[in-house]
Specification:
single chain; 452 residues; alpha+beta; Uridine Diphospho-n-acetylenolpyruvylglucosamine Reductase, domain 2; Uridine Diphospho-n-acetylenolpyruvylglucosamine Reductase, domain 3; Alpha-Beta Plaits; 4 domains; seven-stranded antiparallel sheet; five-stranded antiparallel sheet; 16 strands; FAD-linked_Oxase-like_C; FAD; FAD binding; oxidoreductase; FAD/FMN-dependent dehydrogenase
């Protein structure tokens, strides 16, 4: 990083928003899990799309690579720089527009947190369709870039279903405003969709039009215990296809032990596996819940919450998992989507594989079972270097053998780029690289992400 380039960046965004301080850069060059670290040369924090555009032009002309950062909650090292990059943070893109209650939409800056969007929607009597445990720090720009899913995907879909329009700065500094007020618009390419899930490799999202939804009048939540994972899956299939399904979450009892011991949140039911289910609608769904559970192979009576306070208490165990996973150090994380029919076999095979590589480690499985989108976390995993890579590669191969996808909702980032061919054909990868080359022929934007 040369002094003239730093001065040019400061002239764009202000000297107070450019940093080359080593402590600042070190803190910004580690991923959310704490397992993966990189190197950066400078941090720049633009406040407008035009400033983002100028920053990109200056960096491209100087031949400097750029890594884009939002809330830095990536679990696949998607914001970890590898080439002494300039870190471009979207944290100052914090505009929150007024909620259009009639059209159920809102325009926000890419640096707005999920929690802030949720608060704005709630104040207007509406709800935003995506929810994550990292809601207080995850930014909607980053969530769109990774096409995040989360706790409500079974009801509302991923971020791609919530994005109605985008402001994007392209790698050459051009600013694209893709907005439409009409509900049906089939004019040319669906460009906005191209940037959702692209992990910042094609451009920098600076603003979003987001879809909002009406709040259901009634809601009921239950946590059910199962001794057998196949029995839980069978019940989950029924709920998945039930009108009004709002959430469907699998929790491994080993996760419940951790939340009880380290967060003071006890499991409300017994069983090796737990299923959190929530139904919602314009009419009370409690009777529908009871009918489905009457045929389920439960370990005992389910815990049911019909009022807001009871529902929040039932959610505590699921919500607490993310906070306790790091109690023994950074966990090794896998984000996988699997056919429901293979989940039980995968869970058993994964446990055996982990025991072979790290006998002291604890496998913890949880996630969004309605989509087969599960999070396998290896807690107390002391492996590093080649030993860690050997376990990671073996797990990726196991996922592929069970018909799964190596990346479900967390994206590829830098952590999974060598495994993309397990889920995409050579033709798929070539097409994606062609799109990348068309938008970013210099390959300077998020260069470590997605591709080898």
């Amino acid at each position: 990083m040369t002094e003239p380039l730093t001065e040019r960046l400061a002239a764009i965004v202000g000297a107070g928003h450019v940093s080359t301080d080593s402590d600042v850069l070190t803190g910004r060059s580690v991923d959310y899990t704490g397992r993966y670290r990189g190197h950066a040369a400078a941090l720049v924090r633009p406040a407008t799309a035009d400033e983002v555009a100028e920053v990109l032009r200056v960096c491209r002309d100087a031949g400097v690579r750029v890594t884009v950062q939002g809330g830095r909650t990536s679990l696949v090292a998607g914001t970890v720089p590898e080439h002494d990059d300039v870190l471009l943070s979207t944290e100052r893109l914090r505009e929150i527009g007024e909620v259009d209650v009639t059209e159920r939409r809102i325009h926000v800056g890419a640096g707005v947190t999920l929690a802030d969007v949720q608060r704005a929607a709630t104040a207007a009597g509406l709800v935003f369709g995506v929810d994550l445990a990292a809601r207080d720090s995850a930014t909607v720009g980053g969530m769109a870039s990774t096409n995040a899913g989360g706790l409500r995907t079974v009801c509302y879909g991923n971020m791609s279903e919530q994005v109605l329009g985008l402001d994007v700065v392209l790698p050459d500094g051009a600013v694209m405003h893709r907005h439409s007020r009409v509900r049906s618009d089939n004019t040319g390419y669906d460009l906005a969709s191209l940037f959702v899930g692209a992990e910042g490799t094609l451009g920098v999202i600076t603003g979003l039009d987001l879809r909002l939804h009406p709040v259901p009048r009634h809601r009921v939540t239950a946590v059910c215990g199962f001794a057998d994972l196949d029995a839980l899956i069978a019940t989950g299939r029924v709920f998945r296809d039930t009108d009004g399904i709002a959430a469907l979450e699998l929790v491994d009892a080993r996760a419940s032990v951790l939340t009880a011991e380290h967060a003071g949140v006890n499991a409300p039911v017994e069983g090796a596996w737990q299923l959190l289910v929530e139904l919602a609608g314009e009419t009370d769904p409690t009777e529908r819940l009871a009918e489905i559970l009457a045929d389920a192979e439960l370990t005992g009576e389910p815990a049911v919450g019909v009022d807001t306070g009871a529902q929040q208490r039932l959610w505590q165990g699921r919500e607490a998992i993310a906070d306790v996973l790091g109690v023994y150090g950074p966990p090794l994380k896998f984000d996988v989507s699997l056919p429901l029919s293979t989940i039980k076999d995968f869970a058993a095979d994964a446990e055996a594989l982990i025991a072979d590589h790290a006998a002291e480690a604890i496998p913890v499985l949880f996630g969004h079972v309605g989509e087969g989108n599960l999070h396998l976390n290896i807690v107390r995993c002391a492996l590093v270097g080649e030993a860690e890579h050997a376990l990671y590669s073996a797990m990726m191969a196991l996922i592929a053998r069970h018909g799964g996808n190596v990346s479900s909702e967390h994206g590829v980032g830098t952590r999974k780029r060598e495994y993309v061919s397990m889920s995409r054909t050579d033709a798929d990868i070539a097409a994606m690289k062609a799109v990348k080359a068309a938008f970013d022929p210099d390959g300077y934007l998020n260069p470590a992400v997605l591709f080898d």
